[in-house]
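Researcher: Last one for today. Full complex below.
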Amino acid sequence: EAGVTQFPSHSVIEKGQTVTLRCDPISGHDNLYWYRRVMGKEIKFLLHFVKESKQDESGMPNNRFLAERTGGTYSTLKVQPAELEDSGVYFCASSRGQGAGTGELFFGEGSRLTVL
Amino acid sequence: SQKIEQNSEALNIQEGKTATLTCNYTNYSPAYLQWYRQDPGRGPVFLLLIRENEKEKRKERLKVTFDTTLKQSLFHITASQPADSATYLCALRSRSTLGRLYFGRGTQLTVWP
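Model: Here's the assembly. Have a good evening.
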């Protein structure tokens, strides 16, 4: 079984540019999450999809961040325009089950974003 | 304010000893608590889950306890090995917010031969 895959693994962009991160969850996992770790801080929740619906997007920092999960399969997270404070590692995770899910999260390797 | 604190940023122990990591939380009502392992440049990997009504869980050399009165979880690795060296993350799921996990900053464990 393939794990959660994320692309790109590392992206370096200038302030003001746009970046789109992609996540392919484990096949059959209805729940998909985005998390972010800024240097020196804990991993923080961004949002949660159940299939194609946003269950909880309360962790999104501001309206420069847009997440989509068309068709309930892969997801994209777009940052436009990027700011310096957006630098960090963006993790995608997926899990089985209906609704919120109750068990373990399967994480991808992360996409490291550096904004210069 | 809500906080999850892991007792130390770094823990160094000798091979064969038991490593004990602490996770304390404030102002959460956890449905359950999880422990993850993270290696450099990799994503977190799930290790154990313990529910609010459980006191202790074991898996091979791993043991986790959960005390909702003390608002604390302890994570033990017995007979530690250099391969256990990694960052260990505590995460909890609150009863009031479905889905999301709240993470501590992690404890970096180094097991030396």
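The two ends of chain B are 41 Å apart (CA to CA). Chain B touches chain A at residues 4, 32, 34, 36, 41-46, 49, 89, 91, 97-106 (CB under 8 Å).
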